[in-house]
Amino acid sequence: MALTVRAVDAASFDDVQTVLGTRGQAARCQCQGYRLGWYDQHSDDVAGRRELLRDQVAEGYGLLAHDDGEPVGWCAVAPRADLGYLRKTTWSGRQEDPQDPRVWAVTCFVTRAGHRRQGVMRALAAGTVPLARDAGAGVVEAYPMKPAPGGKDVPWGELHVGELQVFLDAGYRVAHVPSLRRVVVRYEF
């Protein structure tokens, strides 16, 4: 496996769609859940969400992983202020401005079937740091899951936000633990 990770651009949209596929939650959501909120994410307007994603990809908000030129992974990375669902999310002790444009957020990973458990998420998580830094972010944060108490694995469908360890390995630090399994991690520049 020869993984490469790069920022997306307008020419990347077809590769992003290849990773998201044509069925399943990734194809339906089009990485809009944290931008639009629960109701709009689950509406029947997949074409509308696809066009929103096209605009985000053209702006460079995301990363693609390729294996020998084949698109195998996607990661959504964008200014947190653009993510309506996150702007409304609060937790005890958080005092910062949710509209701060210097804070970027990692919200989604998708790895194509046949390429899972081969380090794609890990490579994408590591790529979030230079992408956000080069875009002028002061901080990039993520909201990964960790195993439940007792060592139970995280259910597959909940891993779209990433696994805690891949972020720690990329240099992120734990900022807050709002629940038993959810962790907020940050990388400050």
From TrEMBL:
* CDD domains named among the record's database cross-references: NAT_SF
The entry lists its GO molecular-function terms as: acyltransferase activity, transferring groups other than amino-acyl groups
Occurrences of domain N-acetyltransferase (ranges): 3-189
Any Pfam family: Acetyltransf_1
Q: Which domain of life is it from?
A: Bacteria
This protein's name: N-acetyltransferase domain-containing protein
